[in-house]
Amino acid sequence: LVKYAIATITTDAVGTATITINIDDVPEQPHFDESSYKFTIKENSPEGTEVGSVSASDKDEDEVLHYFLKESSGKFVMDEFSGIIRVAKDAKLDYETKAEYTGRVTVKDKSGLTDEAEVTINLTDVDEMPVFENPKRFSIFARSAQRRLRKVSAC
Question: Which pLDDT tens digit goes with each residue over 34-88?
């Protein structure tokens, strides 16, 4: 609330009167700094790995902003106060299964006014050791240069 005092002189008598004008602040909508955010992380990143952060501003003084992530896989979480996105607990990020995740972030001020932006999280492929689902023991017979039969075994 801003108050201004104005002094005026009346025209029909000699004297002054004080008029007070009150100007109420109208809440301003918060705005994201970007309309969309793109982040890239390695597949298999562990829980708590920082993916990236979003930021917004509000013209209102002393405004506390709250951030929310709408992403259906549940593999990412957002800190409500900082706007930092991290890998969620028990998230298994596998490039071969899904390489891109999309969602929306919302920022909300104390007046309930909001703004939204798009978020895209891309995974990068990491070379992984092959995994044998049903390991078996086998043998191969091969002839050496001396024409002897040799047994080679693998597990």
Answer: 999 999 999 999 999 999 999 999 988 778 999 999 988 999 999 999 999 999 9
Sheet hosting strand 36-42, strand order edge to edge:
36-42, 114-124, 100-108, 66-70
Positive or negative: CA dihedral 112, 104, 70, 64: negative
* Cβ–Cβ under 8 Å, residues 108 and 114: yes
Give residue-wise pLDDT tens across range 2-30: 556 565 555 665 666 666 677 777 888 99
The total of other beta-carbon atoms located within 10 Å of residue 123's CB is 21
CA separation for the pair 45, 51 (Å, rounded) = 9
50-68: burial string, b at 16+ Cβ within 10 Å, e else: ebeebebebebeebebbbe
Q: What is the DSSP string of 87-107?
A: EPTT----TTT-SEEEEEEEE
Structure tokens at 155: 């597990």
